[in-house]
Amino acid sequence: MRFERLRIQGLRCLSEVEVDLGPGINVFEGPNGAGKTSMLEAAFLLSHARSFRSGARDALLQRGASELAVFAELMHGDGRSRRVGLGRAGSPRWDARIDGEKAALGALVGECAVVCFEPGSHALIAGAADERRRYLDWGVFHVEQGFLETWRRYQRALKQRNALLRSAASADELFSPWEAELAQAAHTIEAQRQRYLEQLTPMLAKSAGNLLPELGVVELRYRRGWPEGSDLADVLGESRARDRLRGHTTVGAHRADWALAFTHAPLREHLSRGQEKLAALASLLAQAALFAAERGEWPVVCLDDLASELDHPHQQALVAELQAAGAQVLLTGTELPPALAAVPHRLFHVEQGQVARLL
Asked: Which residues hold ATP (predicted)?
């Protein structure tokens, strides 16, 4: 898929911006603080209903603005076109639209697919498990029908069980129906995640082999969130007393995690910061390639501050791969990265929240 036009209102320093994007590489260059990253953030919002910047929810709305909105005209690989939008005004809840009609957030996210490599991407490898679960579940959502509904069932049951854990008057028999629902949904989610990881692993091996050949063969190690060989309903019952003390559910699908282990770096602590970034990039490229294999089109690829995140050889290799795949790329930098000097691209200058096409 690709964005043909992107319109942004009230997002950080971008008051009113509209750009026509090319089908290939689109470069946003300009000084620091000009609003370049916010251009990528707008595209990412349409695909994830959240920012890729940590703790950014309350900072998204421009100071003094009453409304935040992102609109896009997008084209799918099969020729289908869609007009999509996401916004909010006076409420923390997002309002999603598709072709002018109000839509569920899940439907909007299903239409848009954006992956992003940015300065904080190393957290996918070295950060908290939450980021890795989001990565995993976004991928599963796009290839497994029914995942979203099951995930919502799980979250509803988890919320109810946590409320009972925090209530001193809750009798044990009140837990059983919610624990049964939680376990049933968790086992479905687990099966969907496992299928996805089986498909992802060979693509990850290829991308990691290209970016980190010095580390040897990569292995993706997955931990599901409760002991192997155990039924979650039984584990929930056994952990009830401990969970009461902690006030939350300590086992389940919401506690899953994964890690990469290389032949010559079996623990993530063995990786340098640069290698963490390349491992995160390999994971994102593998996810994008699997999306393309399943859906017949690449997601949009956002690369924030490429020149400072990757050295020149890795920049060249990445650009060549994305060109060969036919992916639309949105890329930022304080100047045009050297790796793009001889590559066809559309160039925009960003300064003080204004965007102008140069080439």
From this structure: 30-37
CA distances from 106 to 111, 117, 141, 155, 260 (A): 9, 23, 9, 15, 29
pLDDT digits (tens, 9 = 90+) for 71-113: 999 999 999 999 999 999 877 899 999 999 999 999 999 999 9
Query: In terms of Cα–Cα distance, which of 195, 210, 212 is closest to 261?
Result: 212
Q: Say which residues have a Cβ less than 8 Å from residue 132's Cβ, sequence separation at least 6.
A: 124, 257, 258, 259
DSSP assignment letter at 270: G
What pLDDT, in 10s, does the model give residues 286-320? Answer: 999 999 999 999 999 999 999 999 999 999 999 99
Say if residues 239 and 208 touch (Cβ distance below 8 Å).
no
CA distance 39 to 256: 32
For 9, the 3-state DSSP assignment is strand
Q: By the 8 A CB rule, do 67 and 82 touch?
A: no
Asked if residue 337 belongs to a known ligand binding site, the reply is: no
- 32 in a labelled binding site: yes
Q: Is 36 annotated as a binding residue?
A: yes
How many C-beta atoms surround the C-beta of residue 18 within 10 A?
11
Whether residue 20 contacts residue 75, with contact meaning beta carbons closer than 8 Å, is answered with no
Distance CA 189, CA 151 (A): 7
23: tokens are 């089908």
DSSP string computed for 41-91: HHHHHHHHSS-SSTT-GGGSBPTT-S-EEEEEEEE-TTS-EEEEEEEESSS
Which are the contacts of 206, defined by CB distance < 8 A and separation ≥ 6? Answer: 286, 289
- 23 belongs to an annotated ligand binding site: no
Strand partners, 68: 88
SS3 content of the chain, % helix, strand, coil (to 5): 45, 25, 30
Confirm whether residue 37 is marked as ligand binding: yes
- Write down the residue that tokens 């990253």 correspond to: 37
All domains of the chain, ordered by start, with CATH? 1-113+299-359 (3.40.50.300)
Query: Tokens in use for 291?
Result: 């999306």
24 a known binding residue?
no
